[in-house]
Amino acid sequence: EEKKKEKDVQFEHGYRLGFMDGNKFYLHNHLSFILYYHREDVEESQEHTYRVVRFEVVPQSIKLEDLKADEKSMCTLPEATGSAPQEIDPTKENQLLFTYSVHWEESDIKWASRWDTYLTMSDVQIHWFSIINSVVVVFFLSGILSMIIIRTLRKDIANYNKEDDIEDTMEESGWKLVHGDVFRPPQYPMILSSLLGSGIQLFCMILIVIFVAMLGMLSPSSRGALMTTACFLFMFMGVFGGFFAGRLYRTLKGHRWKKGAFCTATLYPGVVFGICFVLNCFIWGKHSSGAVPFPTMVALLCMWFGISLPLVYLGYYFGFRKQPYDNPVRTNQIPRQIPEQRWYMNKFVG
């Protein structure tokens, strides 16, 4: 019976200002605060510590005449059964008295479990059959589509790598016309490889953060745990970013690997740090408590140049020594002439 009563109770965010009964308006002018506290288990010689683990607000409507207040702003409430609600007349001024009361109750809920009320699911029926059915259909269709695309692509690549069918390739249309130019090294290979390395670094960081959060290690109760974990992981993932950036840089026929490693370690973090520092200066100017303290900025700089930079250099060194990626098709010696573009295809318009 107690469990049924608990299920009947419905919690809301905030409380209603009042209610209507027919054509009459009634105002909630009394709030009952119920504060639940948990007593920590300590040794006999130590004092007990109490932590607030939950609170509830119960609004009530009590008529002005039933509220009795004294000079010290203390009031006595009538019995719940014998009090009439406070009616509001919208056509005239209403004299009101707002009151509140506080009740303390001991709770068995521990401090670490205080979020469970919000995190528990109301509908526990998971439709496993529908989920598995959808996953199987998606994988089946994806597999068929992948097989068709891979077979077509292999056939095209085999044709492109033949020496004697230049006439056949001339008949190609659309995106296949540029098959001999797509693997040509770009104008700025160092910047491209640096951005790819930063992307790999971010990807590894996000993947591990999501996995750790999925295991429940990053609780919302510990403030800043998510951001701290993300910053540390980004610094340590520099070895993977540097490895892939170095290998791509060698594939693009680059030879200044030390400069490339420095660019990978400083380009993206430098832009982000610069923007955050400028914004933080404005927050400092407003004397906001949300500003990042100066020692924290110095600590981030030390981590950047003390952890991330050496790891990027390490990964870049091993990535640059690896064999470059093999391109599936040959690159034409003479670049294909780009036809004159229309005005709306201009890069500034774009």
From TrEMBL:
InterPro entries registered for this protein in UniProt: EMP70
Gene Ontology BP annotations: protein localization to membrane
Origin superkingdom: Eukaryota
Principal location: Golgi
Keywords assigned by UniProt, alphabetized: Golgi apparatus, Membrane, Signal, Transmembrane, Transmembrane helix
Bilayer topology: Multi-pass membrane protein
Entries under Pfam families matching the protein: EMP70
Ranges annotated as spanning the membrane: 128-150, 194-218, 224-249, 261-285, 297-320
Subcellular location: Golgi apparatus; Membrane
One term under GO cellular component: Golgi apparatus
Family of this protein: Belongs to the nonaspanin (TM9SF) (TC 9.A.2) family.
Protein name stated in the entry: Transmembrane 9 superfamily member
Protein encoded by which gene: Tm9sf4
